[in-house]
From TrEMBL, chain A:
It comes from the Bacteria. The keyword S-adenosyl-L-methionine does not apply. It is a multi-pass membrane protein. Gene3D superfamilies: Cytochrome c oxidase-like, subunit I domain (1.20.210.10). Belongs to the heme-copper respiratory oxidase family. It is found in: Membrane. The chain crosses the membrane at residues 41-63, 90-112, 133-155, 184-206, 226-252, 285-305, 317-338, 350-375, 387-409, 421-447, 459-482, 502-529. InterPro entries: Cyt_c_oxase-like_su1_dom, Cyt_c_oxase-like_su1_sf, Cyt_C_Oxase_1, Cyt_c_Oxase_su1_BS. Keywords: Electron transport, Heme, Iron, Membrane, Metal-binding, Respiratory chain, Transmembrane, Transmembrane helix, Transport. This is Cbb3-type cytochrome c oxidase subunit I. It holds the Pfam family COX1. PROSITE patterns: COX1, COX1_CUB. Signal peptide: none annotated.
UniProtKB/TrEMBL annotation, chain B:
Keywords: Copper, Electron transport, Membrane, Metal-binding, Respiratory chain, Signal, Translocase, Transmembrane, Transmembrane helix, Transport. Binds a copper A center. Belongs to the cytochrome c oxidase subunit 2 family. This is Cytochrome c oxidase subunit 2. InterPro entries: CcO_II (IPR045187), CcO_II-like_C (IPR002429), Cupredoxin (IPR008972), Cyt_c_oxidase_su2_TM_dom (IPR011759), Cyt_c_oxidase_su2_TM_sf (IPR036257). The chain crosses the membrane at residues 50-70, 91-109, 136-159, 179-199.
Amino acid sequence: MSTIALHDEHNHDHADHGHHKETLISKYVFSMDHKMIAKQFLITGIIMAVIAMGLSILFRIQLAWPDKNFPFLETFLGKWAEGGRIKSDFYLALVTIHGTIMVFFVLTAGLSGTFSNLLIPLQIGARDMASPFLNMLSYWFFFMACVVMMSSFFIQTGPASGGWTVYPPLSALPTAIPGSGLGMTLWLISMVMFVASSLMGGINYVSTILNMRTKGMDLWKMPLTIWAFFLTAILGILSFPVLVAGVVLLVFDRSFGTSFYLSDIVMGTTILPNEGGSPILWQHLFWFLGHPEVYIVIMPALGISSEVISVNSRKPIFGYHAMVYSLIGITVLSFIVWGHHMFVTGMNPLLGGVFMITTLIIAVPSAVKTFNYLATLWRGNIRFTPAMLFAIGLVSFFISGGLTGIFLGNASLDINLHDTYFVVAHFHLVMGSAAIFGMLAGVYHWFPKMFGKMMNAKLGYLHFWLTFIAAYLVFFPLHFLGLDGVPRRYYAFTEFEFMKKWLTVNIFVTWAAILAALAQIAFLFNFFYSIFKGKVSPQNPWESNTLEWTAPVEHLHGNWPGEIPTVYRWPYDYSKPGHDADFIPQTVPFSQTMSSNLPHDFEGNAEAEKIQQDWELANPVVQNKG
Amino acid sequence: MSLRKFITNKTTAALAVLLTVFANTSAFAQNAAAAAAPKVDMGEVYKSVIFYILVFLAVCLFIAIVGKALKVYELSREAQGKEGGINWNRVNSSLFALFLVLGLYGVYWEYTVHGAMLLPDAASVHGKRIDDMFNLTLIITTIVFIATHILLFGFSYIYKYSAKRKAYYYPHNNTIEKIWTIVPALVLTVLVLMGFLTWRSIFFKVEDPNHKPLQIEVTSEQFKWSIRYPGADGIVGHKNYKLTTASNTLGIDFSDLKSRDDLMADEMVIPVNKPVKLILNSKDVIHSFYMPHFRVQLNTVPGMQTIFEFTPTKTTAQMQEETNDPNFKFLFYCAKICGAGHYNMQKDVRVVSEKEYEEWLTKQKTYLNDDLRKQFNLPVAPAPVKSVADSAAKDSAAVKPNQMALNK
């Protein structure tokens, strides 16, 4: 096999690798190669996304036609949809599992897991992750978490149904809702495994980025993708353990009779023995992760879109340093804003005021990022690859959803908007759609790197336009439901006179959601078809500067045959005046681009500047340096 | 190579296009036929999954044919040595421009049509401040929303790829960066300050001893609300969840004198222009007391009391006139996921004049009934309050309730 031959070629680079033979299992199943693990994360993520999307269609059907029977639902769901109508507690289970899967399994593991694994070693010039074994474990813990979560659909009492935030006491008392029985236990087990997976991944990403960069790759020469993954991993490492702490306490409350979250509870007339706990404690612990979590979701997407927008605008990303500093700003601030989820939960109102201030401050770095994207597009030479379309879509969603965050971050306005459809619309745009678009941009952009094949661009266009339009059609009208005081997680709008006027909107939204779901078939077909039958990709299909495109198309363990390339410049030298091509890869030394070097390229290195000056004197060509 | 010849053949191309048109029309014809023919029980067809799968497959087929036709067209252009087929950069950039125009219209439509279906103006003092701030925020964000989208899609349209052009190398400009850091920061500072002051005015009220707010206690449980009025003393009495029984569902501690005159009510009736202090708590799980017309929301938490004070400014009758809806009524309902019946957990609210309120109040029954008197060892026949108090003091020692502190 070719891989064995290639392995020999770079054997001298890491002799300690020994002479392990690749079997089917070590290559595709328990692989320790970061590229294979990335693919495993991606495909698992895609499968979970399809499941979660399917769940959303089920509950959208219920919302649109609350008084109609759909016999096929009974076929699939059995007693949870007796007579073809979804039951109200199962409706809540659907919402809960949809949220959990999307937030954790798709947008955290599927996004961060895929692209951190794929790009970190390739873009910083490393042979693999710092600990390939830990990396493999990270995937398998994630996989088990998925299996356990899905298994809750096959038990008598059904999956967890207290909302994805699983607030106790609802989630702690099986008498309150059937889903809080075994289903909730499985949810908690799954979550612990998921956090273990995230931590192993995160620690690996951070140590790889800090220790294994190739020669010349200082921190300020890293692509923004790497910065985003790096800061995301730090966020995860610092916040996920708090969730585990919360989860463990909840397990104790549920199974061992402790009272961390429970007190003064009477179910009907049954007085529970728990005393002294506080349900608010869970909310603090949960949102201490939960808020950083939304940045864990969006930051990799922003990193990916920075790279994609720059490459396809054929322009350096505007304000590289500002982009990094705003990411750092978001990272730091995201730890002190969790309380904005709790303005009206009975938390001390004094805290509400403080959290409002920190929350609105975090809008500043987000605004800076948006403006920088716009400035990057300005006077670019934009190639509308599918990846670029999705990146532009991301910016649009990020703006739309970000702006509604200014309403919700304001404690006074939140009083009337909290837990309404306005919130649903807000986070589905800013973290749902935007992050999914970031992920799709990444898939279209790095598919050639992952599989050595090209995806079909035209199907990509179709996929983008249908999804983009449908997503707006779904989420834009939902804001208005919220402004009319319609709460989220309502099984039906039939019991309130004032909600009846929204029924037609609900039908429209459901059709739009179905359109969006069907559009994904274009993607799924394109994705799986191209893996096998796609056109073979050239070495550097997007004419990009970053290091991963210098690695051969044919995958090999260790990424580069021979030596790892050295890096000389930042990754955004696109359309540099004085250079003939409109891109200069990071591996090209300044000595080869004398005609396009700019004074600040040398970062104050007097000797280099002198050489450049001498060259310019010797070659008095009229230079147009824009 | 014969395949290539076949593809580049003009006749084949023409055939492919014809086929597309045919497939297209026939697909529509099929749909039309399906819609027109069995007028008897169309409902069954629309309900069958197969029908939708077939429609979807037809659409897929159509897309596949269009795709092939496009490919044929491009290959034939290429074979004839003409400039490459369709300029997808132009197509996509034009679509962005189109999306911008249609999108802006869509936003306008949403703002005017759906925007007219929203909650009426706030019916409380603090609600007006919230509304004002909402409007200010809405104006600012709408301007930013439209401006940034015009730039985003406008740039996408203007700067589409051209082989003749090179992008403008413009890596940074610190002045611009500073401007668009400071301007949003300033705008947000204004919003934060306003929000902060409004928030303080809602939750940190200085109580005027001459105008004590009317206390109303609301207790939530799966899936209903119980309302308790304080009675003549103006203070709702103690509760202790451990006293909960089938006849004393709220666990009211009747050994507390203040509890004995507490009234139960089916709906919340409040006098207009008088401050109301809502004392919220929950028996089982967390619920949320949401009364959107007054811009009031606060979670009800088991084991903890939450308090929201507000002043209604419009009576129900006034509101019916304003909204032109004789059936209009104020409501409160649950906004925090609480179980299977979450979607139907509501109570009516009636805002009336002071006089009507006093009248209504006299008709309400006390929570304390003969059954409960027996349970708490109180004389069944209404006795002078003083002796009741004495006997209660003795009995309460035996019960030893874990009393909650209540702000009085």
